[in-house]
Amino acid sequence: MNEAQTRAEHIEPALRASGWGVTPGSKILREYRITEGRKEGANRRSPAEIADFVLYFRNQKLAIVEAKAWARPLTEGVAQAKQYAAKLAVRFAFSTNGQGVWSIDCQSGAEGQIESYPTPEELWTRTYAQQNEWRDRFAQVPYEDKGGTHGARYYQDIAIDRVLEAIAAGRRRVLLTLATGTGKTFIAFQLAWKLFHARWNASNQPTRRPRILFLADRNILASQAYNAFSAFPDDALIRIKPEEITKKGRVPKNGSIFFTIFQTFMSGPPKPGESEPSPYFGDYPPDFFDFIIIDECHRGGAKDESSWRGILEYFAPAVQLGLTATPKRKDNADTYKYFGDPVFIYSLKEGINDGFLTPFRVRQIATTLDKTSTPPTTPSSTAKSLPASSIPKRTSTASSKSRSAKSTASNSSSVKSTRPKKPSSSAPPRTTPSPSATLSINTNPPPTPTTVPASPPTMAPSATSTSATSRTTKSPSPPSSPPPKNSPPASTPATSATSSSSAPSIP
Questions:
Q1: What are the DSSP calls for 308-371, one per residue?
Q2: Is there a domain that residue 222 lies in?
Q3: pLDDT given at position 369
Q4: What are the tens digits of pLDDT across the range 196-215?
Q5: What angle do helix axes 78-88 and 154-168 make, rounded to 10 degrees?
Q6: Domain check: are 190 and 338 in the same one?
Q7: Buried-most residue among 60, 177, 444, 464 (CB within 10 A)?
Q8: What is the CATH number of the domain that holds 111?
Q9: Res 267 pLDDT > 70
Q10: Which regions of 246-288 does DSSP assign to beta strands (E)?
């Protein structure tokens, strides 16, 4: 017989025979998930901690039952039962294989085999030996879990129970220390829910519902809490804002749960006949609030010389609960000095190991920004300090084309100066100059005409002239005509170069 069959056929019937799940207010929570398992990356987790049975009575967890298979030893689950009981902060634990029951008292250390499970009333009496009226009244109010879809985590249950025990014992200042992201606002809501429905107030007489103040130092925290308390009736929730006070001319008092920030309470116009501003919190009587929740209490409310400290001292008759993730222990901002030791601590390491928080890695990076004291330089000064050869020259397409055109014109002039001059008529035709040509007029008189031979000598163009001619822009040339009888003779290349330099250049 395996463990599942042992639980179904032997352990559960034995629990029901003792009244569990039968007595009103009692429950048997099967395979209760305590933790989620540490996140290991790649959507993997370590094994979660799951208790086989949790005995539940009057909205309180009272005991753990660890089950083993029929053929296993009776005490095989003792160590696991003790571990889960310590995790859930319950006093009693049981180990069983279906054939017998091994009882463990985690507070006194007593262990031994028993005949049957204790009844719910017996276990309640053994757990809470001292009677307390308010503890019993708080236990009658169930948690608001949105129809079972939003249950509390195990450490949240412990934190709520510890605060209620402190209130029932008459303590006026209470401190809770929980890591960021572990649900402090949810704990505050459940506490307000139980106090509201149990009709607890500072007078310790259940004659009226309490007036609760949620005090934060940022508007986003106050608004977040206001939305988280939406399960309360609409007329019970009041958001204190400066513009609303200015509009109505008075502070709101017709509610049960109030939300505001320190800055709003510290603001206010001077009263008639006074020059100093009058804080709005002074418009409330000192005993108006019964329970005050100070969110992130380490950020100013616990400082001795802080102006916000005056708000807490003014409402001294109220029970004040401080919520913080990083309480301070230095100078006069000592959170412990004002609130006392925390009734419950849930650290960041515990949240990561339980799988409720994501692990992280600290990566240290050393920069060189602070190793030099040279002030930053402007772009202009940087450019001046660089050598001219290291500054890249920006060129554009237009400038490149311009330089290309100038080079072409220069080559063209070189070609014209080396080529032999063609014989021309008395009225040479006008030629269209290139865009880069330069206008120049020669005032020297023309050379004296000489006898022209019958036919001009033919000269082969040089390689330089041919290659230069191929790079010049082709332009239409006038038709050539045979030279007249009295035209000047063709000149040699040297003579042509000389006459070309003295000949007028007509645009």
A1: THHHHHHTTTSEEEEEESS---STT--HHHHH-S-SEEE-HHHHHHHTSS----------STTS
A2: yes
A3: 78
A4: 999 999 998 998 999 999 99
A5: 60
A6: yes
A7: 177
A8: 3.90.1570.30
A9: yes
A10: 257-261
